[in-house]
Amino acid sequence: MTNNIIELKNIQKYYPLDKDKLHVLKSINLEIKKGDFVIIMGKSGSGKTTLLNILGFLDRLSEGEYLFKEENVTKLSEKERSKFRNNNIGFVFQQFNLIPTLTIYKNVELPMIYNNKYSKEEKDKRIKNNLEIVDLLDKINQKPLELSGGQQQRITIARALVNDPDIIFADEPTGALDNDTSRDIMELLKELNNKGKTIIMVTHDQDLVKYATKIIRLKDGVVVEEL
Fold first, then answer.
1. For residue 154, what are the contacts with CB-CB under 8 A and spacing of at least 6?
2. In b/e form, how buried is each residue of 33-57, taking b as 16+ CB within 10 angstroms?
3. Which of 22, 45, 78, 199 has the CB geometry, 3.0–4.6 Å to 15, for a possible disulfide?
4. Is the pTM higher than 0.85?
């Protein structure tokens, strides 16, 4: 029994390119432990977002093996992947991906709609608890565009937490924010990590590595450094 929540074995990722193929990830071997705060870094085109998408079941690997909590999840069907993703993973994106016509309450509720395992009362409790965690319970009936960028990102974190996932994946979560707001978001993610959440984050911002327990640097689809 290991403490690994994720293990990648010899991962390759290709994309079709005319009559050839583009080799984006090359022989990636990786172990991530429960409770890690992992930051994946690299220049544009290094493969970091592709790696995050494979880890988060948003894209499929071409070759290799993916173990999640020691279960081989490499060949799950699309339906199985969708269910697995919804039950185990929360996402925080650079552009927030909130639905502007829905209230904050309804935006945070979205991940729970797809798993049908909560009563109406349990949903309500979870939504309010997670809005309290991000200190935005008072915005529950407002709509995303009525909030600042930092507040919108906090709402995406509440949404990511609502199914109590094992891992939060964050793709450039501070990329659209000013320095002070970025620091607030990173402190919130670190606080969640301190409470036991595994965080895997892509960024190009060197200043953010201080929050990490593990740093992975990619170059041309290869892990060139692991700290």
1. 134, 135, 136, 185, 188
2. eeebbbbbbbeeebbbbbbbbbbbb
3. 22
4. yes
Q: How long, in residues, is the chain?
A: 227
In a domain, 96, yes or no: yes
CATH number at residue 196: 3.40.50.300
Per-residue pLDDT band for 114 (boundaries 50, 70, 90) equals: confident
Domain membership flag for residue 20: no
Distance from chain centroid for Cα 220: 22
Residue 155 buriedness (CB in 10 A; 0-12 / 13-18 / 19+)? buried
CB 46 within 8 A of CB 219: yes
* Rounded-to-integer distance, Cα 125 and Cα 212, Å: 31
Q: Is 73 a member of any domain?
A: no
Long-range contacts of residues 18-27, Cβ cutoff 8 Å, at least 24 apart = 23/221, 24/50, 24/221, 25/50, 25/51, 25/54, 25/61, 25/221, 26/220, 26/221, 26/222, 27/222
Number of domain units in the chain:
1
**Domain range for 184:** 36-60+79-226
Residues 6+ apart with CB under 8 A from 119: none
